[in-house]
Amino acid sequence: MKATRRTGLVLAPVKRTAGRMKSEITRARILQAAKAAIAVGLAWTIAPHLPGVADNYPYYAPLGAIVSMYPTLMGSMKNALQTIGSLVVAIVLAGAVIVLSQPNVFTMSLAVGVGALIAATGWFGANREYIPVTVLFVLIIGGPDADNYSLGYLVQVSLGIAVGLLVNLLIFPALSNDAVDRQLTNYRVVLADHLSEVAQALAESWPPERDGWASRKDALISVSGEVRAAVILAEDSSKANPRARRHRRDVGADFEDLAALERVTFHVRDLTEVLAGAVWGTPIRVELRSELRPSLSLALNAVSTLLRDWDSEATQRAAYSAAADAVASLMNELDENRDSAPATSIGAATAIAIDVTRILAALNSRAEEPAERD
């Protein structure tokens, strides 16, 4: 029961990170739903007033509006082009059936099969299923009036797509810059908390009573994936977005920061496994001499402080210098004990020390040249 409570406390920052991201996603979805409702209403209002045969099929305009509703402008435009492309391909296939033969069970099945093969190429993204479905619509619903039906279908869907794109452009087009800052900060806090927890375990009586850090390492991967998704969304949301001109952001620097933190995560997980082996003998049984633990604890605490001071130019260099000194002191102590200690004991401490050194290397460029943020 105690172990469960400790694990819950250790995972609290991870849960807070997930909670903040879910809250942001919820707000974005509410806004997107409202925009979709507006776009559908406008498309349905305009559709009956189109000239020619298109006004016979007004119900396809709202469908086009819904299809064009994506969280980002670039995603909306890409989806719109793929939708129109899939409809054109489907109409061509259905037209070939009408021109070259006549609709029957065999020719309809053949056209749908060819459409499914084209859809399977992935050229039309998530809208690939429109190809075989539209083939059936044109041949079954259009029937003898397939040409007018095809034209009306395509025009009305295109109208809905145009309305949807316009609504997406004019009403708060999504820009996810702020979310990236929060997610990267949360990621660093989670890593720093984990290292602090490991450092405290090393400073306590042996074996340590705290054991939450051992299970926390797996949650780091989940946090990493969520942050990467946030950075990718921010990059996509800035494309073709007029708001991005006023809120410029170096997304390339965000990816560099994320890559550095992902490397840090790899080494944090590795040193955690080594320490778990020293405590419980799994996954590999190793020894860790008591006289080496204080230096290891100091080094991990120093790196934890560096992660917390990542965004502060005033303290970042000092934190990096302190972490480098702590690691250098640890290495010197390992060298002094190399001849008098068993290989397994020195090996465990050395493995942790190397992981800490690699963490510093991953953060080094960021510490020397802090990325600018608007």
Automatic annotation (TrEMBL):
The organism's place on the tree of life at top rank: Bacteria
Phylogenetic placement of the source organism: Bacteria, Bacillati, Actinomycetota, Actinomycetes, Micrococcales
Recorded topology in the membrane: Multi-pass membrane protein
Coiled coil: none
Transmembrane segments: 30-51, 80-99, 105-123, 152-175
Keywords from the named record: Cell membrane, Membrane, Transmembrane, Transmembrane helix
UniProt-annotated location(s): Cell membrane
The protein's name: Aromatic acid exporter family member 1
